[in-house]
Specification:
- The chain is mainly alpha-helical.
- It has one domain.
- The protein has 7 helices and 2 strands, in the order H-E-H-H-H-H-H-H-E.
- A two-stranded antiparallel ribbon has the order 1-2.
- Helix 3 packs across helix 5 and helix 4 packs antiparallel against helix 5.
- The longest helix has 22 residues.
- The radius of gyration is 21 Å and the shape is elongated.
- 17% of the residues are buried.
């Protein structure tokens, strides 16, 4: 301890903390089951991981290159999520909130980041044929429906 430093102790009621930690412990972000149609989920998977084209799927009949918009968003914002989780943990420990109220904030944060990545991603670009057919060069946006369907869902273990 440094000279003049004051250490403040706060008593934490363990039973109160246990109540605040009960309930959901996960937030899933992306295209949770029942929140987006199968066609949107399929389009998201094709773009996230790519396809071989032909019978395996693909945009206008050809292969879809890998455009990892979800993984990019999660990697790029990892530090931000860690800071948000640490801030939420401090709030819970101070008894000013519960885990149940922290998780939706984290979900909304990640949802916005994924949607921003869908808007910003430009590489690999669309093929000239795809650009001509859809009238846009943005690889992940045709109608905007996939971006709109990104959501989050709080779940129990």
């Amino acid at each position: 301890m440094f000279k003049g430093e004051v250490i403040r102790h706060r008593r934490i009621d363990v039973s109160d903390l246990a109540i605040k930690l009960k309930g959901p412990t996960k937030v899933k972000v992306g295209f949770p089951s029942g929140k987006a149609g199968a066609d949107i989920v399929q389009r998201a998977v094709w773009n996230e991981f790519g396809t071989r084209g032909g019978a395996s799927g693909g945009g206008w009949g050809g292969p879809v290159p890998e455009r990892p918009f979800m993984r990019n968003a999660m990697r790029s914002n990892r530090g931000k999520y860690q800071r948000a989780m640490a801030a939420g943990a401090r709030e819970v420990l101070r008894s000013s909130t519960s885990l149940r109220s922290i998780l939706p904030r984290l979900g909304a944060l990640a949802q916005g980041d994924i949607q921003a990545e869908i808007t910003a991603l430009r590489s690999p670009p669309n093929s000239p044929v795809t650009i001509a057919l859809k009238g846009s060069s943005n690889p992940l946006i045709d109608t905007g429906e996939m971006r709109q369907r990104v959501t989050w869902q709080v779940e129990d273990d």
